[in-house]
Amino acid sequence: CEYLPAVNMSVWMILPVSLPVFTITGIWVVYAMALYNQHVCPVHNWLYNESCEEQLPSQIGPELCCTLDNIPLISKCGTLPPESCFFSLICSTGAFMVMLITLLRYAHVIEKHQNCILNMASLSTGWICAAGLTMVGNFQVIDHL
């Protein structure tokens, strides 16, 4: 077996750090897109259902009040196009990164120690979480009343 030099292995340390940086930034971009397209109300509006009497200064679209249907939840922000496409991209890329990180960790534990049931359980759990994230990102349900 050939081992990679230590310099090349340090590049892999970027992957676990980049996962939360990439996903958190992506979720905020999705929120900004949904806010710009007026698919959700701003986070700082705490007057839901009470703001219907007068127009809010930040709203210029057809819906002039914030109801409980417009609360900016993560899944609500990524429901309608065009932000739904970016939400799917973020979730799919994040799921791939989770699968790669858990696989690399699994291989690292096998290399340094012997394989154990806990190592296999962590690999399985990581891949199940990645599959769930892929399904959440790519199968959005739109409520039509």
What keyword list fits this structure?
mainly alpha; 5 helices; membrane; 0% strand; transmembrane; CWH43_N
How would you summarize what this structure contains?
This protein has 145 residues and is mainly α. Helices cover 59% and strands 0% of the residues. The protein is elongated, with a radius of gyration of 21 Å.
What do these coordinates show?
- The chain is mainly alpha-helical and 145 residues long.
- Helix content is 59%, strand content 0%.
- The chain is built from 5 helices and no strands.
- Helix 2 (14-36) runs antiparallel to helix 4 and helix 4 (83-112) packs antiparallel against helix 5 (117-138).
- It is elongated and about 65 Å long.
Show the helix and strand layout.
Layout: H1 6-11, H2 14-36, H3 74-77, H4 83-112, H5 117-138
Helix pairs in contact: 2-4, 4-5
Keywords: Membrane, Transmembrane, Transmembrane helix
Domain CWH43-like N-terminal: 12-144
Protein name: CWH43-like N-terminal domain-containing protein
